[in-house]
DNA sequence: ACTACAGTTGAACAATAATTCAACTGTTTG
DNA sequence: CAAACAGTTGAATTATTGTTCAACTGTAGT
């Protein structure tokens, strides 16, 4: 006879082995929405093109042409990625004549990259 | 007459606007390989299922069944993600009888997640 | 007003990745 | 040794994402 306690609580294809652990851990888990947001945040940093752009902008404000030249990529490809970076508030831009200059908008960018770098370089 | 300086240095569909900036920034950029590795590292954290697993394991060692129950996902799906996490050395496992217990293997996991969380929660 | 250039945008295409499904390994128990 | 269960694996499917391409906007110069 099966335990009735968690009948419909956790649906999956297995018998719960350690209910106490599951309940205890479950209580201290971050909200689902929070973890989705966190995943999305990391997703922005998970593309080497975007990382290159961020590393470049950490040094100096640059226009799209400059970035394209530096990375050896089309303006279109760069612009698409800049759009992503701007939508996530990591960079900001200003127009000066024909050019649009991008720069870092969030102080966490450097920390997050350095932190990840530390993890990679060992 | 075009400048001869950077003739074949940067190929892209635009005229280089600020050569000095590009050269200066270019000198201080991390290696391409390094940035690829960094992107791959962030990629692991960019999925909410994997984040959930890591958050759970940060609290306590758990077997696959426990994790499946906690997340409401199939053992197969969880096992696939655990494989990714193990290949990137973020978790380790040990067998005890029929069960396989997973736990955090890298001290950076907590730092990286907390760091990202700080960025998300504001 | 016309031309040239910086940049943006949306659709199409190609590549990557997460989940499902079914078959499999390994361990315990009767 | 046979049955039952924990977990793994590979192939197939589905979803997501990065880049290209072509057309477009906006600004400067003539």
How does this structure look, described?
- Two copies of one chain form a homodimer.
- By secondary structure, chain A is mostly helical.
- Helices cover 56% and strands 11% of the residues of chain A.
- The first copy, chain A, has helices at 19-27, 32-44, 48-59, 64-71, 75-87, 108-120; strands at residues 62-63, 91-96, 99-104.
- In chain A, a hairpin with a 2-residue loop joins strand 2 (91-96) and strand 3 (99-104).
- The termini of chain A are far apart.
- The first copy, chain A, binds a DNA duplex (30 and 30 nucleotides) through residues 14-15, 17, 43, 47, 49, 63-65, 73-83, 95, 97-100.
SSE order of chain A: HHHEHHEEH
Radius of gyration of chain A: 22 Å
Count of alpha and pi helical runs of chain A:
6
Main β-sheet description of chain A: 3 strands, antiparallel
- Specify the CATH homologous superfamily of chain A: Winged helix-like DNA-binding domain superfamily/Winged helix DNA-binding domain
Q: Give the terminus-to-terminus CA distance of chain A.
A: 52 Å
Q: Count the E strands of chain A.
A: 3
Proper CATH architecture of chain A:
Orthogonal Bundle
**Overall geometry of chain A:** elongated
């Amino acid at each position: 006879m099966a335990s009735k306690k968690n009948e419909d609580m956790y649906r999956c294809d297995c018998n719960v082995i350690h209910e106490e652990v599951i309940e205890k851990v479950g209580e201290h888990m971050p909200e689902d929405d929070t973890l989705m947001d966190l995943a999305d945040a990391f997703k922005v940093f998970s593309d080497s093109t975007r990382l290159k752009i961020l590393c470049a902008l950490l040094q100096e404000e640059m226009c799209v042409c400059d970035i394209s030249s530096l990375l050896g990529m089309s303006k279109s490809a760069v612009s698409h990625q800049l759009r992503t970076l701007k939508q996530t508030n990591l960079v900001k831009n200003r127009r000066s004549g024909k050019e649009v200059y991008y720069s870092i908008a969030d102080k966490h960018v450097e920390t997050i990259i350095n932190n990840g770098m530390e993890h990679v370089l060992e």
